[in-house]
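Progress narrative, work stream C.
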Amino acid sequence: MATFLYKLGRLAFRRRHFVALIWVALLTLAGVGAASAPPAGNSSFSIPGTEAQKAFDLLQQRFPGASADGATARVVFKAPGGEKMTDAGNKATVNKTVKELSHGSEVASVTAPYTGHAVSKDGTIAYASVKYKVSGMELEDSSRTALKDAAQDAREAGLTVEIGGDALSAAPGTGATEAIGIAVAAVVLVITFGSLLAAGLPLLTAVIGVGIGVSTVTALAHALDLGTTTSTLATMIGLAVGIDYALFIVSRYRAELAEGREREEAAGRAVGTAGSAVVFAGLTVVIALVGLSVVNIPMLTKMGIAAAGTVVVAVLIALTMIPALLGYAGHRVKPAGQKSRLLGGARAAKKPARPNMGTRWASFVVRRPVAVLLLGVIGLGAAAVPAASLELGLPDDGSQPVSTTQRRAYDLLSEGFGPGFNGPLMVVVDAKRSDDPKAAFTEVTDDIKGLKDVVTVTPAQPNKAGDTATVTVIPNSKPSSATTEDLVHAIRDAGSGIKAKTDAEVLVTGSTAMNIDVSQKLNDALFPYLALVVGLAFLLLIVVFRSVLVPLKAALGFLLSVMAALGAVVAVFQWGWLSGLMGVEETGPVMSMMPIFMVGVVFGLAMDYEVFLVTRMREAYVHGEKPGQAIVTGFRHGARVVTAAAIIMIAVFAGFIGSSESMIKMIGFGLAIAVFFDAFIVRMAVVPAVLALLGRRAWWLPKWLDRALPNVDVEGEGLRTGPGSGPKDLDEDRELVRV
């Protein structure tokens, strides 16, 4: 591995024009594809194997003209103070608005408040329901504009008008904090490298990599039904790992220059050593992201694969474009320990050398491993305590910012009709096998009326064949509450008894029931997914470190950091701690995808730091240093860079906390705090403390396993005894070009 990457690095350094041209061409091609592709919308949401999805599919089959997957909108009206929606003037305004809404070519139906019993008991609030022929993803902008214009006309007539539903769903915005994250990354890189040019290389390559990855996702978004959230996630992950991977290779290049090597040789060795770590770190991230497919939720699978593709691009760019750009930079990239003149390089050169912070910290940990280990574990354990109160759900309009019309419509409907009105349950009664379908429909409605937490049950609405009917149930509690979840389970339990009596099958669907089924499906998949991802990565790390205990320690440390991060997410988004600072306007259940998503992404990123830091320790150990000294050596060379990489990644993820989309906000915060816990507590404190306590046993590997494992040479041992020792390697590089 190291030998091949060494040759690749030297080749890219020499053939820099060719390498740069390839990446610019790929960026241009992806950009053209993204610009010419139809815009993405909200990804269609299907959950195979759940009751809610089964009922939804049945609706499409038995009610073919009902546009079961069509977008919906609720136009909510509120009368001015002292007036009612039934007043003649207000009624005329609403009827005019309904008439305007019905003109669109994509509109399937519009139900007026006065014909659909959609006026509140006090008469102050009413709503019109709009059903479209196409899904929210396929809805034309002209239809959304017509919807907004109709609402605006009613506002000008004196009514308060807001719009809810998925017809107005918009692409999430990230706000200015994303740019602040990039700015922080730039400052950290300048401080780390002491050079504006060296700092600019990781940023440039990361932007190019994300540009290629996200443009490709955008180009394929409409065809593959990827949705807007997919590209946001690809940007988040790709930018973070792209900067980090380039940072490690540039840092190693400067270290090789400081040892007196020629620039081409230094580039080859940097890619051969740090590049090997990049490859395996990238593999762990890809395994974790692609592994999301085992959950069998199409949207989550697409998000994981798209982000994994961006990570692959980041790895390839770090291995090829970074050495090419280093060739262009020439002597303007200084050896480690030197700064550019602009940043006071001449003054820094006069200062006497002294142990850096990483050396001093590692020496302290080696002397006090038990105290450091206990402090780190207890601290993370305390942060993880809120995770015991974790409640899962999916965001709805109630979690939107109060500045949005969707949130204001949600609040108006809650005020006028009760909190459960925003999450109606649709009960589908399949009476095809029943001898008396009408009796079955009546049995279902009567049984549901007798359940707790039910406010309203509409009469059964049968299809033309008379063998299937829908019943709408309005709960007494809001959609995301545990009480509503209990009601869904109660209806399903009652359905078992109804089936035994009438042979009619009762299924519960709707967005609320779908969210409940998603949460359950994710809960059921969490431990199998964790076992798969951690197991595969554990085997990979055994190959990398040629040790059993080091990968085991890495996995246990990850569990500590991810549980602490989940605890922080619960404290902020569910309990409301520091919610104002984070821009969380409505607390509630944690997004149901968050635990499994955090496990996947954070595990991959955590292994990045494990690989980068511990490979330097193993490199020192296999070259003859004692275990304790190898820990210090690893920190001397790697702690500064790992610290910079972690700060950059935290800054990039934290930038997404400013998103208007609650899911993106939560993911950004969760990943940022998880990287903080993992990098600065687990990898910087717990890991060296455990290695110091284990001593030589940390690097133990059974002889039979040692013989069976392939030697990937991540430490670059082959570069000391083989390549890199003289001009003969130029012939080997030319052979690589011919191959």
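Work stream C, second folded protein:
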Amino acid sequence: MDLVPALEEPLKKVLGPATAKVMAEHLGLHTVGDLLHHYPRRYEERGRLTHLADLPMDEHVTVVAQVADARLHTFASAKAPRGKGQRLEVTITDGSGRLQLVFFGAGVHKPHKELLPGTRAMFAGKVSVFNRRLQLAHPAYELLRGDAEETVETWAGALIPIYPATAKMESWKIGKALQTVLPSAQEALDPLPDSLREGRGLLPLPEALLKIHRPHTPADVEAARARLKWDEAFVLQTALARRRHADALLPAVARRPKPDGLLTAFDDRLPFTLTDGQRKVSEEIFAGLAAEHPMHRLLQGEVGSGKTLVALRAMLAVVDAGGQAAMLAPTEVLAQQHHRSVTEMMGELAEGGMLGGVDDATKVVLLTGSMGVAARRAALLDLATGEAGVVIGTHALIEDKVQFHDLGLVVVDEQHRFGVEQRDALRGKGKQPPHLLVMTATPIPRTVAMTVFGDLETSVLDQLPAGRSPIASHVVPAADKPHFLARAWERVREEVDKGHQAYVVCPRIGDEEDGPKKAGRKKPPEDEAERRPPLAVLDIADQLGRGPLHGLRVEVLHGRMQPDDKDAVMRRFTAGETDVLVATTVIEVGVNVPNATAMVIMDADRFGVSQLHQLRGRVGRGSAPGLCLLVTEMPEASPARQRLAAVASTLDGFELSRIDLEQRREGDVLGQAQSGTRSSLRMLAVIDDEEIIAEAREEATRVVAADPELRHLPALRTALDALLDEEREQYLEKG
């Protein structure tokens, strides 16, 4: 947290332009403060050697080991035809295994002189295989001469910090750069209030920075980590607490439904009773709507737990109270789907101002970017006059031209598709700030909810409505057992023969010019399956239509189709006129076709855990049981297969979201991957540090309540400014 001028000093002034350029481009480090907060990933003990036996393939590693032997070979080659080519082979050992280093050509002279048997050094390079043996070709190295003053000074103490590094900047070079800037740590302003720090026995910040980079004992590392985790948790929670505090001071119109109005009429016509969970959550929402400051609530519920019904009841309560309610959906397919299901659920109550409408009826309007001019003009007029009580739309709702008569509630479906700016733009359309209800079907562990959605109160719907069917999930290893894939297509035919329908999901559309190249960049190859382009909707639909699903009515759906075409395809599928829908993840959220019972996900290893859980939730929505088949070509021992096995083993979204989180970088959790900025979480682990986050939230709430402007805590205010600088502003919810 770049708090004071010494820590804001650009690295090029301190380390020189060449080093600073590499640090900026490859590690995102620009100032002395950035570098001080680039913490070691782990530590090596001088007396203990790394496990060479456990080296990962194709990764850039740093190892500490001893030279066992070194041999210089000469050979003939195109460049040295007279047998004057030189190759130095050095074997290093750590007691657990041996590793070969190779140097060629002019590069052999220095290591030949320096890497003598018995020499200890740090080596860094990319692990590869040659003749079935692990090797590092032309590794960079740093000798550890316990007696040389400079080395002892640089690697002070028994612990050698190993930093997150890149091929262009080895760990020890980062370590040396840190030794240069470490004296500046003394000037770091401490954002934690003294009472909090002393009360919890935490180190002062300068001391923590010193101990994390130059520890003498493992206890130093532990004490420094404990302190730095608190820093991150507390500053982040203070930012959220200030946002909650500011929101609580805003005025809002209290919206209480009429005793026998639209909401009562709607409840009376429901063909089923609400679950206890739906009742409880509705009460929480109605209490929020009745308050005179804006409600900000996150409604999270399992796929199919009836969130849309809960949200609709909240919208009708606001219409009852004389206001308007808007639902923002991430895609046109979903907006149209919501519009259809809401008008069906409401029946004549959605026909306000029309001949068939009843007394308490209102108008339900759809607004999307692709609507014709006349339909759009009519919708805008209904919003401006207040004729339409309920509007459902996409980003088109946010445009300047859209004016509401009296916007009382904004419902955002699938929060992770919207940035906070879009949320605020829609909220800005009310005469006074409207109430806000954010819905997500991605279950979020409690700590993540506290961290990412920390400005929202949370309601959880964890009970499925009666009559929902279980979903059986199985991994189909297409490469190991091709007959399993053949059986998968037979199962789809069997479901269709019973009168049901099926989805087939693919990662790619198939008409992109650069699709395969993009896809190929995503992850390091785990094996050949990763190297080929991801399977595509258009190719698979064609193969299925001509092959295993010949004779069935197969259609495609993807994001690049014209909106009217997409809607037509969804209508036919919903009406049962299509047997199999081959689609991309456009069907991931909100699509509700109770007759669809089977889903085959191709290249399932290319999807995240939460995404697979979302997709699977599209089947088993009626009375017949659901089936989800996860097709992959990944080998059995691969992490990808373990991930798929986890998805197949449980239907508990909260359990899966934990697994998902443990497998991803913390930065992704906070949406950093999408917003392009670096995560501020370098030390805090959202899952493991649940206790710290919860305590930091309490402390931050207390501090902000007592001193909202943080006038008595200037260092904390400075730390907040650093966290919420322009680039990262409100990154907190950019999920």
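Residues 218-249 form the longest helix (32 residues). No further action is required on this item.
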